[in-house]
Design brief:
Helix 2 crosses helix 5. The strands form two sheets. This protein has a seven-stranded mixed beta sheet, sandwiched between helices. Strands 6-7 form a two-stranded antiparallel sheet. It is α+β, with helices and mostly antiparallel strands. The chain is built from five helices and nine strands, in the order H-E-E-E-H-E-H-E-H-E-E-E-E-H. A hairpin with a 2-residue loop joins strand 6 and strand 7. The chain has one domain: 3-Layer(aba) Sandwich (Glutaredoxin).
Length: 191
């Protein structure tokens, strides 16, 4: 009788523990520790931690850019084309504005729509200038306003794992999109 009672209690405890999903602790170098508020292209206020659980491919741009940003956006679209269809729901392609005054949620939404980047895996973000600078520092991305409508900035595409750890970066005017897409696919398949 005692064995049956013990087996019953053990089974109940096993299955009740199995029902609870325990989120593991974030690694110390996770971007999800940044507590700033961001707005997406739909006007929703989010925290970076709301992106947790997905592989992130991140680039910082501004929508009125006529030089480097169109190349970076084109690279992000090429990366999207190389993400396996069954991985797209595990990946977010994130474009972060370095010009939050101009790049309102409405402008970001229109930019996404015009650029055919309005699928669910595309995320456009803006925040305060301080939060934007903090995020750029994390990426080792430099930018500076050089006129009322222009910025000088680094060209970097970064890949983060679902826990917000930086996995890789590609920099320059000739981003290796195949390498970035391969990395994103591998992380997505492993998560």
């Amino acid at each position: 009788m005692k064995k049956i009672f013990f087996l019953l209690i053990s089974s109940i405890l096993f299955f009740s523990c199995k029902e609870k999903t325990i989120k593991k602790e974030l690694p110390s170098n996770s971007i999800f520790y940044l507590k700033s508020d961001w707005q997406n292209q739909n006007g929703q206020t989010i925290k970076l931690n709301d992106l947790r659980g997905k592989t992130l491919v991140v680039v910082m741009i501004y929508t009125s850019c006529k030089t480097a940003c169109p190349l970076l956006v084109a690279d992000m679209k090429k990366i999207e084309q190389q993400i396996k269809p069954n991985n797209l729901n595990k990946v977010s392609l994130v474009l972060v504005s370095i010009d939050p005054k101009t790049d309102t949620p409405e402008r970001l939404k229109e930019f996404a729509k015009t650029g055919k980047m309005d699928a669910a895996h595309w995320v456009f973000l803006r925040s305060t200038e301080a939060a934007t600078q903090e995020f750029a520092n994390v990426l080792s991305m430099k930018y500076k306003k050089i006129s009322p409508i222009e910025f000088s900035h680094s060209n970097i595409i970064s890949v983060f794992n679902p826990d917000g750890e930086l996995v890789s970066q590609e920099q320059g005017t000739s981003i290796n999109v195949e390498k970035v897409a391969k990395e994103a696919n591998e992380i997505a398949e492993g998560s």
